[in-house]
Amino acid sequence: MSGRALRVSVGGQLVGHLWYDGRRSTFQLHESYLDAPRRQVLGQHFEDRLHRVARSCKGFYPWFENALPERGGALRRLVSRDLDMSDDDSFELLEKLGRDLPGAVEIVGDVSMDAPRPHVTEPELGSLNTHRFSLGGYQLKFSLSGTPDRLTFEHRDARGSSWIAKVGTEAFPGLAENEHAILSWCRAARFDVPETHVVPLESLPLSGSLPRVPTAFLIRRYDRVQGRRVHQEDFAQVLNVPPARKYDATDSAGLVKLAHQVLGPSGAEEALRRLVVVLATGNGDAHLKNWSLTYPDGQNPTWSPLYDQVATVAFPSVSKTLALRIGSAKHLHEVSVDHLHWVASKVGIGAPRCDELVEETLGRLRSTFPEIGMPHALEDLLPAHWSRVPLLRAHGLR
Q: Which residue among 81, 109, 137 closes a domain?
């Protein structure tokens, strides 16, 4: 096969090669990967199709597109500008950012293939984005190393990055404080949540034009642990759908069924608990890219820690429509226990067990709410939100 090729590896193990001719992409698994006695998992989509050694799709391959910043987003524009390239060229962007992608996947140009590897120019130091990293999503964010009070860019070794700093916009005042408070609440309620902080924007090692917001949100990377890359994939990758379909490729029932398929009954129950968290925290934007698997041993998937949990009800401009419909309920304030029963029934979880999961989760959240010290904007808003949601109303947050 001729044309430009990228070499794809995960956990240091060669997986295969990716081609793209501007119209169609082809990913071909390597024989050494298929024959390996201990094969690192690239993604569930590929595990289900190992017999199809080579497969093509129209446009750029969705699984790999999801490893890049989203088209039209602030991070994509910033990185493309610093690399002096079009933000529409996912193939070139993947090649230039491929040594520092989410999880343990690495992608580089392969000089052993028929086509010569294109020349890649280094960005000048001193620009806003002086290193090459990729983070999924739409929001402006940066991969950093160091400690919360002394953050730096990791120029040489992507494994050293340990934090993600997320910068909001003037349109969503208090976003950093909101996400930190919600995730702190989830952590207090015994959910797996990475370490988080709110830091002054001026403390980040950045220069250039940034949104005029006072603070940034800092979260420890769960895919970089003590200098080791831990593989992960979000559910848009699991389904191999492009980021543009993160809202409509499936619904909550489909997500729970997928969790049951990949993680078993306990994984499906955790999906239901996390759906309750989404409702309880007033998060209408929990789309497919906000649900992820991680592979601590490189082979066996488990739920990733919680991340990207924001009380979107705090922002009037954000739609109250659920990112992933729950049964027939399309809006946050429509969801009742019957809707959750219907979702649970799709994986064989009966109403009594579903009620236990709801009661347990809401009990943990209700008892820990007073401990958190919510931002003023959320102190009264969240109890009022609980009073409007049928599933939550009987439990009362205060």
A: 109
Domain termination site, one of 67, 83, 109? 109
Q: Domain residues for 83? A: 5-109
The pLDDT profile of the chain, 398 residues, written as one tens digit per residue, is 445 799 999 999 999 999 998 888 999 999 999 999 999 999 999 998 888 777 778 889 999 999 999 998 888 888 888 888 888 899 999 999 999 899 999 999 864 544 333 333 333 323 444 446 777 777 888 889 899 999 987 655 555 689 999 999 999 999 999 999 999 999 999 999 999 999 999 999 876 667 889 999 999 999 999 889 999 999 999 999 999 999 999 999 999 999 999 999 999 999 999 999 999 999 999 999 999 999 999 999 999 999 999 999 999 999 999 999 999 999 999 999 999 999 999 999 999 999 999 999 999 999 999 999 999 989 999 999 999 999 999 998 87
Tell me the pTM.
0.91
Task: Please work out, in degrees rounded to the nearest 5, the angle formed at the alpha carbon of residue 154 by the alpha carbons of 150 and 155.
Answer: 135
Q: Is 275 left (phi over 0), alpha (psi -120 to 50) or beta?
A: alpha
The two structure tokens encoding residue 246: 């993160």
For 62, other C-beta atoms within 10 Å of its C-beta total: 20
Any domain includes 302: yes
Q: Are residues 105 and 236 in the same domain?
A: no
